Amino acid sequence: MKIVSVKIQNFKPFKNLSLPEDGELPDGLILIKGPNSTGKSSLFEAILWALWGPSSVKPTNDELVSFSSSFCKVILIFEVMGHRYKIERSYDSASGMKVILYMKSKSAWRRIADKTRSVERAMESILNIDSNQALHTLLVRQGEVALIANATASVLRDMLVDVYNLALLEDMENQLKHLETDLNNRYNALEEDYTNPDYIKEQIRKTEKRINDYQTKLGRKDAEVKKLESALSEFPDPSLLENLSTLQNEVDRLHSVLERTVEMRDRELSKDDGLLVAEEKLILARITSLKKQSKRLDETIEGLKEKISAIDFEVGNLIGESRRLQKAMDTLKASVDDAKCPTCSKPITNEERTKLIKEYTQKITSSVETAESLKNDRHKLIEASREATDKKSEIEKLVNTAERVLGLQQELEKIENQIQTAKEEMKSALAKSGLDEISSLLQKHGSKSINELHLKITRLMGDLKGLRTEYASIEQTIATEEKQMKQLDADVVAMKRIGAELDNLKSLVEHTQYVRRKLVSGFLADYVIQKRLIGIVRGATNPYVRAFTNDQYSGIDLIPTKATGRGGAGLLLKIRDMRDNADKKSSQLSYGDRTAVSLALRLGISRTMSAMRPLKESPAISPRVKCVLLDEPLGGLDKQRRTAVVQNLLNDQSFKQIFLITHTDVQSWQGVPVVDVSKTGISSVAVLMRDSDE
């Protein structure tokens, strides 16, 4: 694989970056330099994120977006086996992740995948390697070389297992452990469910005995039910008794009402001497006569009222005339010399004045006497009116009494009709059942009343219902016991099967333990590590060791170590020192030499990962990752070692491209393309310079 170009928008410190601005990224070694915190490692993260998404970088998607933006996007063009591909990956918090993979066909880009999972599968198909292995091949992370340099034997072994995906076998061992646990859990669960079949058979025998006892009890209850049913068959239909009881109760109630009504009628009848018997015709005649008397009294009262009104009018006139004459007389008495006639206002003499006063006095006296006489007549008329009114009130009371008597008499006739109807219904009900009299029915069954007989039948029916309920309960119990016995029979068969399954599980557990402990663990420790990978890694690493150390160290070897009480099996790194003519452990080397050897080992691993299949389970075609990203691996190396490393990488034909991040001076490395990363304000820029002297 070769990375052709990369375009970045709003990804971490890069606002808008095209690398290169025109053309393509060159083959071979490319140095990436710049001060700290300018975005060199972010450039690698953009490449990895574009290829394999968020699982390939530590920051979350939201953390990748520039602070001044709400989305980020990376477009990466790369080449594999002569074919060009373009992958566009973008993210924003609103719509999430979007990714599209294109393949160039002639002069146009053809979309071949546009979903996260489909793009991932397409990338694995293009590179012949999964994303995890590709990352180990493509990327040497910052600090990883130092980690290798200081790794213990077990850590170094685990690193190889992780890089070469040998976790396949460890997963197999873990799966076998899980299988053991699952088998043991199943065995324990079955063991909890297991019951000795002999114990179940004893339960079956006890159940059979209970069923026999219940069946005997059921027979006794059946005899009792039949006896009660026979007794009840001699009694009349309960519905008939209930109907007769209802009718009898109604007759009794009506008789009681009848007696109360007669008492009320007779009491009202005694209030009117004119009513001798409660016959409807006589009562109606009495009411008519009384109403006529009342009408005549109304006419008398009205005539008296008219006479009283006439007297009141006449008395009023007399009083008014007396007041007028008294006023005129008072005026005449007051005027002695200049008296005037009260009628025409002409002057009159004293003799005429005296004569008028005398005349007025006589008239006033006469009016008073007439008014008094009229008042006496009025009083007599009022007394006569009061007597007529009292008489009318008495007559109205008698009318009301007569009407109440009439109503009660009519009610009595209605009640008597209802009593007769109820008796006829009772007679009809008895006739339908072939009975003549209630008394003979009661005598036959030794009861004093229909209610007593009905209650006796109700009790017998209640007893019968209780017996039938007990009978049904015993039947249900027998059915439950029979069902339980069938279940117990099935349990015997099931327990025999579970017993056989327990024996089989026990055998499987023992076999699984043997496979895990003796075969898988031994195969991973002995065959894969010792007999295959060590030789492959040694062959790929030794040329780098000699080149990086100017032939001071001729090669390395990985010596398997056994597990100890403090750790598992491991790999001990040994290096041949040509100057001292001795084999040394990594701990015996200087920090710079240890770093150079570790870098050689890590590049050897990437080289083998890009060219071979470590296991038969790996893809049939070799991986196509011929590119490596080295994130600051030169820390701790002096200038001579750095020059040796860079010169070797410059001439290394194992990789199509090598991207190397470094903080060290590269001015002396002529002809090496450089990507210069720098800050401009709050964002970063990166420029490809084809010659380091530029």
CATH homologous group name of one domain: P-loop containing nucleotide triphosphate hydrolases
Task: Give the number of DSSP strands.
Answer: 15
First-residue to last-residue Cα separation = 28 Å
The percentage of residues in β strands lies in: 15-25%
Class from helix and strand fractions:
alpha/beta
Range of helix content: 55-70%
Please outline the major beta sheet: 6 strands, antiparallel
- At the fold tier of CATH, the topology name of one domain is Rossmann fold
Strand order, biggest sheet?
A: 2-1-4-5-6-7
Give the overall average pLDDT: 82
How would you describe what is shown here?
It is a single chain. The chain is an alpha/beta fold and 694 residues long. Helices cover 61% and strands 15% of the residues. Helix 10 packs antiparallel against helix 11 and helix 13 packs across helix 14. The chain is elongated and about 185 Å long.
Topology at a glance:
Layout: E1 2-11, E2 14-19, E3 28-33, H1 40-52, H2 61-64, E4 71-80, E5 83-92, E6 96-105, E7 108-113, H3 116-127, H4 131-138, E8 139-140, H5 144-149, H6 153-163, H7 167-193, H8 197-233, H9 238-269, H10 280-334, H11 350-432, H12 438-444, H13 450-548, E9 553-561, E10 570-577, E11 582-585, H14 591-609, E12 627-631, H15 639-651, E13 657-662, E14 674-680, E15 683-689
Parallel strand pairs: 3-13, 3-14, 8-12, 12-13
Antiparallel strand pairs: 1-2, 1-4, 4-5, 5-6, 6-7, 9-10, 10-11, 14-15
